[in-house]
Amino acid sequence: MMNNKLIVSSSPHIRTNQDTSYIMKQVLLALLPATLAGVYYFRVQGIVTILACVIGAVCSEWLYCKITKKPSTIGDYSAVVTGLLLAFNVPAGLPIWMCIFGAIFSIIVVKMVFGGIGFNFLNPALAGRAFLLASFPVAMTTWLKPGANPDAVTTATPLSFLKLAGAEGMGSATDALTRIHGANISIADMFMGNIGGTIGETCSLLLILGGVYLIYKGIISYVMPATYICLVVVLTFIFGGFNAEFAIYQAFAGGLLLGGFFMLTDYTTSPMTKKGQIIYAAIAAVIATCIRLWGGYPEGVSYSILFANCLVPLIDKYVHNRVFGEVRK
């Protein structure tokens, strides 16, 4: 008979009073400054869009639970977070019915059909944005000028001026900077949010403060945001002809900070290990950079994160932490 030796070690149990609702409340608190900035810059249009997305998301989840006769899960505030993040990813003034359609897709198709929170393999808000962009491309790329009244003319986003190449072959980083300077868009404007774009991607300062708050509270780790944002900046610096100004503009333009702090870090759709998180964030950064610089669409953040979401099961399969109690032979 074989004499098998059993090695017993202490369990790494961690006790905490944090639950899903606590975490979601912290995320909402972190998003509050950027939300107020969106309301300040886009006025009534911003308020209506935010309310339509949030109410649409909460009602969709409640109705799905009601129809399927499952306990209501709206009390964990995850639907509120999804609705708010969806609003952050669409332009102010998007028709209310489109906001509701996007919320329904995000909650029911992407989240609830797969089993609810913890079971979805894509970020619901980003999937909702992708659905709306594919279905209503004109409305989703019509940007209001900050501070304008509802009848004001639309404006262009900084990323549209920063495009290096693509179908039109728009030249070098120097040409891109010439275009954006000609449009009177400064780095200070982008940092403070006085630019065209989606509701949540305009004010870089408040997004950074919200992300730092989540890191400070231990809700997210610095690993994924730092890897993602820094690598995009480094890559745009290298492929932009080692132009530091071009790289700084890329850092504050579009949804890089919003995606890096608030959507790349989603618990359900990101890897479990630190090494896996670095690989995951690096893949997303490379894809975002390629789309921004050479793709046909100015922004690549949402698609880069969605693509990386699909690779998470594969990353988790091959990237492991050392097992507690493991004894090396």
Task: Describe the protein in words.
The protein is mainly alpha-helical. It folds into two domains: 21-141, no CATH class; 158-318, no CATH class. The protein is built from 14 helices and two strands, in the order αααααββααααααααα. The chain has helices at 20-67, 78-88, 96-112, 124-135, 137-140, 158-162, 173-182, 187-192, 204-216, 223-239, 244-252, 256-263, 274-294, 301-318; strands at 143-144, 154-155. It has a two-stranded antiparallel ribbon with strand order 1-2. Helix 1 crosses helix 2 (78-88), helix 2 (78-88) crosses helix 3 (96-112) and helix 9 packs parallel to helix 12. The longest helix is centred in the N-terminal third of the chain and has 48 residues, at 20-67. The model is unreliable at 165-169 (pLDDT under 50). Pfam families: NQR2_RnfD_RnfE. Part of a membrane-bound complex that couples electron transfer with translocation of ions across the membrane. Its EC number is 7.-.-.-. It comes from Peptostreptococcus anaerobius 653-L. Its main location: membrane.
Short summary:
The protein has helices at residues 20-67, 78-88, 96-112, 124-135, 137-140, 158-162, 173-182, 187-192, 204-216, 223-239, 244-252, 256-263, 274-294, 301-318, and strands spanning 143-144, 154-155. It has 329 residues and is mainly α. The longest helix has 48 residues, at 20-67.
